[in-house]
Amino acid sequence: MDISHPGSLSQTDALALRYGPDAIPDAGPWNDHIALLLSHRSIRGYRTDPLPPGTLETLIAAAQSAATSSNLQTWSVVAVTDPAKKAAIAKLANNQKHIEQCPLFLAWLADISRNQRLGAEEGVTLEVMPYLETFLVAAIDAALAAQNAVTAAESLGLSTVYIGAMRNNPVQVAEVLGLPAGTMGVFGLCIGYALPGVANEVKPRLPQSVVLHREHYGAADERSARAAYDAQMAAFSQRNELTQDTWTRRVLGRMGKVAALSGRDRLAAALHALGFELK
Ligand SMILES: Cc1cc2nc3c(=O)[nH]c(=O)nc-3n(C[C@H](O)[C@H](O)[C@H](O)COP(=O)(O)O)c2cc1C
């Protein structure tokens, strides 16, 4: 199986890479679009080559084609190509080198400010603005839009990696990007051409049996499925020269201590400062 071009794999090979050979689900219908989705990999090393003219606009058209709650369109995106600005964001986001390397960095915003301005211009108080629901809708909208952009980018042979670390210092990120009140950078996205040799294999996921529940939630075979997935992730890490680890240790390390949140434990306060009341 040629894992360097996962988009060209057969259905069985693509599913085997995503789940491991022992957990291939009985998937039915299949096409090239689904093959592309299954071939996704985050890439953490970029050539500096610029993107072809109009790429940004194409990606944003894909992003804006995502569903958006009640067509409220409560998201925006800031495209960053200025090296100094990318460096400033990288510094606020755990010094991740790919933020500086990539030719295009997109900061995805939950944005209720535009509709707030609309209300002010129309002389109407928008009573729902201070509610947690409104922030959640904006964050969901931003995520759906961004994922459309990711899929579009990958279909063009580009690579991406999301940057959740942009939430480590949201108030400072807002200053760097000149964000108005009522906007928050919910995550970033590096886009560009992968450096040779940086692409890992497709990262296996949990077996469908633990994430797909039929008619009611059930966690009966979770323990044995986790053990099997741990073995698979350990082998994946070794093959890809990553710090060898199981999924269990990954979850415990990432969710066991507040320190692992890298400042995001203060997110509620940051959101208040950025104009989200979260009632
Ligand atoms: C919202 C979000 C934030 C993420 N933040 C980061 C990040 O800050 N740095 C990073 O290297 N990867 C980040 N990732 C990438 C994940 O680590 C990656 O998707 C996961 O390990 C699965 O690997 P894959 O995307 O190659 O399948 C993020 C992913 C998501 C969805």
Describe this structure in words.
This protein has a 4-stranded antiparallel sheet. The chain is α+β, with helices and mostly antiparallel strands. Helix 3 crosses helix 7 and helix 4 packs antiparallel against helix 8. The mean pLDDT is 95. It binds flavin mononucleotide. The site of flavin mononucleotide has 12 residues, from strand 3.
Topology of helices and strands:
Elements: H1 11-19, H2 32-38, H3 55-64, E1 75-80, H4 83-92, H5 97-101, E2 104-111, H6 113-122, H7 132-155, E3 159-163, H8 170-177, E4 183-192, H9 208-211, H10 222-239, H11 247-255, H12 267-273
Antiparallel strand pairs: 1-2, 2-4, 3-4
Helix pairs in contact: 3-7, 4-8
The structure holds flavin mononucleotide (FMN).
Summarize the structure.
This protein is α+β, with helices and mostly antiparallel strands and 279 residues long. It is built from 12 helices and 4 strands, in the order αααβααβααβαβαααα.
Q: How far apart are the termini?
A: 52 Å
Ligands, ions, cofactors = flavin mononucleotide
The portion of residues assigned to helices is 40-55%
Strand content: 5-15%
Number of helices: 12
Strand runs, count: 4
Strand order of the largest sheet: 1-2-4-3
Mean pLDDT across every amino acid position: 95
The SS-based structural class is alpha+beta
Order of helices and strands: HHHEHHEHHEHEHHHH
Shape: globular
